[in-house]
Amino acid sequence: SFSLSRPEPRSSSRRRKRLPMQRRALAVLRARRITRHVRTCSEMRKKTEADVLTGGQAETRSMNLFTAINDALDIALGKDDEVYAFGEDVKFGGVFRCCIGLNEKYGDNRVFNTPLCEQGIIGFAIGAAAVGAKPVAEIQFADYIHPAFDQIVNEAAKYRYRSGNEFDAGGVTIRTPYGAVGHGGHYHSQSPEAFFTHAAGLKVVVPRSPSQAKGLLLSSIFEPDPVLFMEPKWLYRTSVEEVPVGDYRIPLGEAEVIREGSDVTIVGWGAQLQILAKAADMAMEKDGISCEIIDLRTLTPWDEDAVCRSVEKTGRLVISHEAPQHGGFGAEISSTVQEKCFYHLQAPIQRICGLDTPFPLIFEKLYMPDHLKNYEAIVSSVNESC
């Protein structure tokens, strides 16, 4: 018979008999999960290294950034039935058309629209990942990701840790366009990456070009940890290059030296790399200064070793990003290099960043860390050498 009264507690002797079995069973389950996770990471690393060397490198096709992302999503959806793409207007291709044609090819069950509710989009993605899916959730603009902040940093990032590795939301990939576009104002121009680099358990990835975007996005989708994939929106159509055909992966957490130099190390990510290349060209042409340019590619975990090796060689460091300087990710890089490379530094580390104001509309050119500001920092770094 049904009763609202509290059931009698089990005897302490019964608890003592069962608890060791429970502990052993939980220990076995945790060990198996850890083993599976380590095996998955190891297999992914081997596949990544092989794919970077051979996967699709022989044949290329001209793509811009949004078509490269579309191609990566198409490959992921075709490769694994557990991959799903969704977000606001995604069924129709999305506001930047990155998902164009995918709903027609894979149907409403795999590529679909969501309500205008960022926390709901990410909450749904976490639930799907917890039962084995690989959801690719789109937040239409990075400026509107903040309603989902709690879901990303307190749920997705911590799900594995708080369950003792019994559960995880590692299949989650969150795509979102970020950064200035020339006319976006303060609700369509922000670069909020630094907020998320503080969340242990979450990887943050920012590509600089179409070929990088495709390889990094495929790695992110099949990565066993949740990933925030931030796409520089002003490069969607302006950045065009030859992109390998087929499935290939670029390892997460590894920076790339895209130009070698001897006098100054310059570090950036995403769209800012084009600005830094222009500043480096100007420094070489006008002043004969040789700049080494590093694309960080992944902000968490970031490649400390690659940056420190370069700084030990050049003795100088300039860091540049669109986000405001105060509390920006450049401060983390500066602090780490100061701690690890202090005796190699010949000049103060310089940060050339956005201003500590809301993103302006008519004053965007004054706000942006353009090539002229970076050129001045490069020259100043050399001239102020001890």
Summary of the model, kept short:
This protein is α/β, with parallel strands linked by helices and 386 residues long.
Can you put this structure into words, describing what you see?
By secondary structure, the protein is an alpha/beta fold. It contains 13 helices and 14 strands. The protein has helices spanning 12-54, 65-79, 102-106, 118-130, 149-156, 159-162, 193-197, 210-221, 272-287, 304-314, 329-340, 364-367, 371-383; strands at 60-64, 83-87, 111-113, 134-138, 173-178, 203-205, 227-232, 240-244, 256-259, 264-268, 291-295, 298-300, 317-324, 350-354. The strands form 3 sheets. Strands 3-2-4-5-7-6-12 form a 7-stranded mixed sheet, sandwiched between helices. Strand 10, helix 9 (272-287) and strand 11 form a beta-alpha-beta unit. Mean pLDDT is 89; it is low at 1-18 and 40-56.
